[in-house]
Design goal:
It comes from Psychrobacter glaciei. The chain has 345 residues and is mostly helical. It has helices at residues 4-11, 17-48, 52-55, 58-70, 76-90, 106-117, 120-132, 134-158, 161-177, 181-207, 210-224, 244-260, 263-280, 285-290, 296-315, 317-331, 334-339; strands spanning 238-239, 242-243. The chain is built from 17 helices and 2 strands. It has a two-stranded antiparallel sheet with strand order 1-2.
């Protein structure tokens, strides 16, 4: 006679290790999917309570900055992104309708003007830049020379016989002095304009008061502040093969490569990291994160945003395979196999 226990055994399919593993894999994936969000928040709360120096040392930060950042040049991808982003920003149509004052506030200009005006050294540097700059004197010399030369050539061509006589006189002068008249004219202008510029600079530094220098800066800003930002494009070239943006990016790259390999910069970075670490090594991760405006609310928003990625990862083939491999290794242990009454394939 068949007992009820025997009848139950006949009605219930035999449970193998493989089928048990499959059931556990499915259960774990479903459970992790449902618990992903609260688990991530709890993980953050646990991590936030840990002290910084428990997991991160000053040497770790030094290696991170030196090995991952300073020792690596910018990739071609990043350089192209920089060029494209600069081009988008500089030539964006919105710049046609936004004034320069949107970038710099009047109070900032006033503060700068007051600072420069109230410091003699900075004031003298500004005056020298505006009035006594040799480059400006050279440009003015060339401008006056071309204007005088153009006037003389135009006048002589229209003067008929008198013009021919003046040209003859010019030729005679050059032969007699063994000097080119154009060269003589440039030398004269250059010497006298530089002398005038030095006198003007000396007078300006002697007579311009602090308030006058400050007003000079403010009034100069007032003349340009309402111009659209797109006016800056006039000082740039966007022609293929002669792009200002490419020159700017190349200059940034050159400066970056020079500085990142400089022992000077490495010394400053090392000292800065040591200073920062000494100030914060006892802080919790939450305190450090809070200085970057990362708090529980921010982490909750980040967790919610990342949930689709987490769900896809849980359902992925690689994650399923790892869970199955782990469970199979667990049930393959001799002690587990002996302790369980399962039929094995």
């Amino acid at each position: 006679m068949q007992t009820s226990k025997d009848s139950q055994n006949l009605d219930t399919p035999a449970l193998t290790i493989d089928s048990l593993v499959d059931a556990q894999v499915a259960f774990m994936q479903q459970w992790l999917r449902q618990q992903a969000e609260p688990l991530s928040i709890e993980a953050w709360q646990w991590f936030a309570a840990q002290p910084l120096n428990k997991y991160v040392s000053a040497d770790d930060l030094q290696h991170l900055i030196n090995d991952w950042l300073l020792n690596q040049p910018m990739t071609d991808v990043i350089r192209k992104d920089i060029r494209d982003i600069l081009h988008t920003i500089i030539y964006h149509p919105v710049n046609d309708n936004v004034p320069l004052s949107e970038l710099v506030d009047d109070t900032q200009v006033q503060t700068l003007a007051n600072y420069v005006g109230s410091h003699e050294q900075q004031r003298n540097i500004l005056i020298h830049t505006l009035v006594g700059n040799e480059t400006f004197a050279d440009l003015l010399t060339q401008t006056l020379y071309h204007a005088i030369n153009d006037f003389m050539e135009t006048t002589l061509d229209k003067a008929g016989a008198a013009g021919k006589l003046m040209k003859f006189g010019r030729s005679s002068f050059e032969k007699a002095t063994n000097r080119n008249l154009d060269e003589k004219l440039q030398t004269y202008l250059h010497r006298n304009i530089k002398d005038l510029a030095r006198r003007a600079e000396a007078n300006a530094q002697e007579h311009l008061s602090n308030d006058e220098v400050a007003r000079l800066l403010v009034s100069g800003w007032a003349r340009i502040k309402d111009q659209p930002i797109s006016q800056l494009q006039n000082y740039l070239s966007d022609e293929p093969g002669n792009s200002s943006i490419e020159h700017i990016e190349a200059s940034i790259q050159q400066s970056y490569n020079r500085l990142r390999m400089s022992p000077y910069l490495h010394s400053l970075v090392s000292a800065s990291i040591d200073t920062w670490y000494a100030n914060h090594q006892g802080d919790s991760m939450a305190t450090v994160a809070a200085s970057l405006y990362i708090d529980d609310q921010a982490m909750t928003q980040l967790s919610t945003a990342l949930l689709p990625v987490v769900h896809d990862a849980i359902e992925s083939e690689w994650f399923t395979a790892h869970i199955r491999e782990m469970l199979q290794a667990f049930y393959a242990q001799p002690a587990i196999k002996e302790g369980l009454m399962f039929n094995n394939k």
